[in-house]
Amino acid sequence: MLDSPFFTQFLKASTVYTFVSILLLIASLLVMKKLTNKKVDFSKRMIIGLVIGLILGIGIDLIGAKDAVYLEQGRQEISAWYALVGSGFIRLVQLLAVPVVFLSIIKVVTDVDADRIKNLTGKTFAVLLGTTAISAAVGIFVVNLYNLQGANFAANLSEAQVNRMSNIAAQSFPEFFLNLIPNNIINVMGNNGQVVSTVIVGALFASAIRFLSIKKPDEVKPFIDLLDSLRTTVNSVLINVIKLMPYGVMALVANAIISNGVNTILDMAGFIIAIYTGVLIMLGVYIIILLLVGVNPITFYKKAYPTMVFAFSSRSSVGTLPYTLKTLEEDLGVSGQTSNFVATLGTSIGMNGCAGVFPAMLGTLIAGAVGVEMNIAFYLMVVVVVTVGSIGIAGVPGTATVAATVTLNGLGFGEAIPQIGAIFGIDPIVDMGRTMLNVTGSMVSAVVVDRWDGTFDMEQFNS
């Protein structure tokens, strides 16, 4: 190990493990580049990147797991270098998230008549919250299926963490909505977490454009042309960023395993298996929903899985939004108006993974640990609290954490927050599945609403 501050603090490369891991990362990137040059299908490169990331992460951590040098220094250094590729890519995608949301909402509101906006809003909330209620029921089911015990996951959080979560969750329902109303447009545009606030700002601008297009068409036309040019430019930048996705996925998956450690993941295997069972069950529920609206689920998943893989790797519903919109409009045949509206709201309302399955599981676990009688009345209360809470947490950063604490407080278990520390310790691993479910549920909801509205392009979907 090299002890010089130049290597340990500045270069972040002071161990043999770090140097070898960097070389492996470079080699893997070259392999992905070669596949790109050979014009291998984008979806196949996504899967290959995911597999290479798994092999890198598991291999590196297993080899160094018993060495103090790796555990004390190497793991952090390797994570920093892999984050340069993985997290660097995510930042590029997140860079586009707010402008995409802002421009999409303006496009929808200005192009759609007032009556359809009302219908679209009602249908969107019905589908998003309906699937959230189902996902909450699935969360309860998997806890009982695996007979998980809340006490098995007890761990101590720091006092600061407990206070932060308690303060957020203790806010009243009106306060949550009040905090969604922006008071600084610059802050809204600079914060990817404020999706709903961005929607509000976009809707205000769009409403003004609709009014001025009738009253002062000549004066507002240059602004409309500017927005159209901005949308075209942002889409072009988005396409170029998306081309880098297989590289980012590979580094993100590897880093998730290395930074948490294989042993930590194994210690919480029961909970991880349970939540991924819930994810798989919900993917099955989506099949039934798609069949009910006359859409082939095989075709849907075939076209949606690259977006699902990206969501799984990136752990960011908002960061995935630009690619979600592209998939809905270009591959799945959803109209631009519906995809922009439903997918945008779906990043912060009715998230089936972060605000559905996950908090319902934790609420049921803690209830079992403190001796609450498990009956139909309690389960119905969990579903209601989780579903209502999924609206209240809209636009708040750290959605899954807040959703969990809102649910626990809503059920009267606020004092039990410290017991879920162990679960938050493996949060990045379960967050992959949760985010994939969020995004998939959002895409399914967009398809359902578009079919419901009669604007779905079945020919494009089947092409």
From TrEMBL:
Keyword Lipid biosynthesis set for record: no
Subcellular location: Membrane
GO terms, molecular function: L-cystine transmembrane transporter activity; symporter activity
One GO CC term, this protein: plasma membrane
Keywords: Amino-acid transport, Membrane, Transmembrane, Transmembrane helix, Transport
Primary location: membrane
Superkingdom to which the source organism belongs: Bacteria
Annotated TM spans: 16-35, 47-65, 80-105, 125-146, 195-213, 234-258, 270-293, 349-370, 376-396
Pfam families listed in its UniProt record: SDF
Record SUPFAM superfamilies: Proton glutamate symport protein
Membrane topology field: Multi-pass membrane protein
Family: Belongs to the dicarboxylate/amino acid:cation symporter (DAACS) (TC 2.A.23) family.
Protein name in the entry: L-cystine uptake protein TcyP
